[in-house]
């Protein structure tokens, strides 16, 4: 699920290759420390030296590998994409969309992941590199889940020409709206409604590309 993440000094960026051994442990510790700082203090309160201290690694390691806070946040998003659950294949569009809604709900209501997403999204509104990293994260997620829509077309459940990305955005949007804007309950009932409404709209041809 990775895409290349730009590094501070060019070449392959952090998150491009899944490291092993000590390198993997260092990355995990640094990203967790950065996430904690981001949740506690916001983007402006994240300091690479402090992140290194929290992670128990040398400052030189953090500065050499990540270089800037936006690159560190970008790698954090890459790691989230790497560790997220794989696409469901239930054999029906309704089942797949319900699984996706449940996955989104579980992420956004997680005691760590929920606040972390809020902090990253808030940062992305005013920081270009973080915004691009967030956009890349969601492009990767949409790409992973697009086959559930393509398979539904093959099974004849929904019309040919249905745009998978639009289907997935339609399902996700009301859940993120509850998280970030309305303050309405973000619960299993909301996830169920989002999945059901998206499935109905897809069968009605709402997401068929104009072209």
UniProtKB/TrEMBL annotation:
Record region (Disordered): 1-22
Spans traversing the lipid bilayer: none
Keyword list, A-Z: DNA-binding, Transcription, Transcription regulation
GO molecular function: DNA-binding transcription factor activity; transcription cis-regulatory region binding
Residues in coiled coil: none
Identification of the protein by name: Transcriptional regulator, TetR family
Residues annotated to bind DNA: 47-66
Pfam families noted in UniProt: TetR_C_11, TetR_N
Record-linked InterPro entries: Homeodomain-like_sf, HTH-type_TetR-like_transc_reg, HTH_TetR, Tet_transcr_reg_TetR-rel_C_sf, TetR_C
Domain HTH tetR-type: 24-84
Lineage: Bacteria, Bacillati, Actinomycetota, Actinomycetes, Glycomycetales
